[in-house]
Each structure stands twice: as structure tokens, then as C-alpha cells.
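Fold these two proteins, one after the other.
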Amino acid sequence: MKLLYIAGPFTIAPGPEKNTEYAAAFALAAWRRGWATICPHKNSIRFEEERDIPAAVWYDGYLAILRKCDAVLLIPGWQKSPGAVAEKAEAERCGIRVFEYDAVGIPSPEEAIR
């Protein structure tokens, strides 16, 4: 099974709760298309409240996870998110396929890995 990383806004308006619901809908749709998905939003909800852990720890950790993925899906609004912009850049640096939902929807794993 191929692994798809969901990248999009988390802390920006309307905020983590709504952004997590939003990203989770894309992750679920990707599972239906045949992907296993990594949705950092679901993994980290409420972690942003932990003030003793610098934001860089979360960013670096998710970039490490992203490097294990076969592809990245940029969900609408990703351009407004510094984290998603960094995730896109890291995927491209590592030769990982990047897809914008607004351009292609959710590709099947077979379409994405060609």
C-alpha cells in the first residue's frame, strides 16, 4: 500500500479544530481511493497547546515523517500555511511526488506513482 501525506493549514484561521476536520475529510477520501494516509492534523490536534515544545519540533518531526511517504497531497489553502509550504519544498527536494487537490483531485496510488 502506498503512503500519502496530507499537507494543509493547521493553526491559521479558522484554527486547529476546523482545519483538522477539513484535512481529515481529504484523508478519508484518500483512503477510499486506495491510499494509506498520514494526516498530521489528526495526529497533533491539541499539541499546539503544549507551550514547552517549540513549533520547530513539530515541523521537523513531520518533515521526517513526510520523507517516508510516496506522495504529498496539498489541500486547498495550503499556500497560506508556512508548514505546508515547507512540506511541499521538502517533498520536492526529496523527489517525492506532490499533487495539488485543486489541480488534480486525489489521484489513485497507481496514477501518482507512475
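Now the second one:
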Amino acid sequence: MLKVKDGDIQKMGLLYERYYRQLYCFFLHMTRGKELSEDMIQNVFLRMLKYRKAFTGSGEFRIWMYHVARNLILDHHKKNSKTPSHNSLQLKDFEERISGGQLTDDQLDRQQKLELLETAMNNLSYKNRELLVMCRYQKLRYSEIARVLNITEGAVKVRIHRALNELKSNYLKIEN
């Protein structure tokens, strides 16, 4: 990113290749929309290019990228003046179907549990879902999440604990 900041715009393509999948997964979990996620990725890279002079290089690029991504989601939801949607993205969109044959009882049970978990995740508050997506799906460390959210690492641990409790409560309500 420092090279992009210094005018070597061609390096943005390398950043795109390196972080596309990570951003797509983040946006997909947050927005639940494939096309919207694709659009947001493009907008993140446009914003990074536009605000490249704001990147100081003193921190990790990935943290700065998540700041840009989070701001984009927040701007999108303010503009559309509704809470993050939980539209029709289904678990089957993430998993390939087993070719030729019936699902075994174990596979069917696992699939049902994953669908319940996805529903419970969709029912989380936006902030809790964001935390769990960053922690569990994006594999960010607590210290990284703290820098993205501008809070202490201790606050991240407490919030994730609360988010997991909310997720567990949602799951148990749906399961019963």
C-alpha cells in the first residue's frame, strides 16, 4: 500500500488479488448478499485508492482495510436507512452439493445444525455478528479486532463473550 500511496497504482491489483476473498467473505457474512458483497469490494478498493494518502504505514494494512470496509457498510446502511439485511442467502450457497446420491443421516444432521446456526447468526445484533465474523470467519486476532474497532483488547474479549452467549441463546430458541 505504501507503493500505491507513492503513486505506483499498479500495485493495487496485487492488493486486490491478495485480499479479495477475505473481503468477499466479510461482506457476505455481514450483508448476506452476493451482488452487494461484490459491489462493496469494488467500492473498498476505490476508497483505498481515493484515500491512499491517509494510509500512514505505521499500522498493519489489513487493519486499515477493515476500517475502510466497516465504514463502507455503515455508510451503505445509513444511506438505505435500514438495518443490515438477512436476505435469502442459504447455507447451500456455501457448500457444494454431494454429487449423485442421498445424504447420509450424519450429513443431513450436520446440514440441519449448520442451517440452525446460520439462522441464529442472522438473528444476532449487527455489532455482535460483526464481532463474530471478524473473529471466527476472518480469523482476526483480538488485538487486531481491537485496533479495527478502536477499543481495548479486553473490551473485545468481553464483547465476543457476550456475542457468543447471544448466539447460543438464539440457537437454543430455534432448536426447540
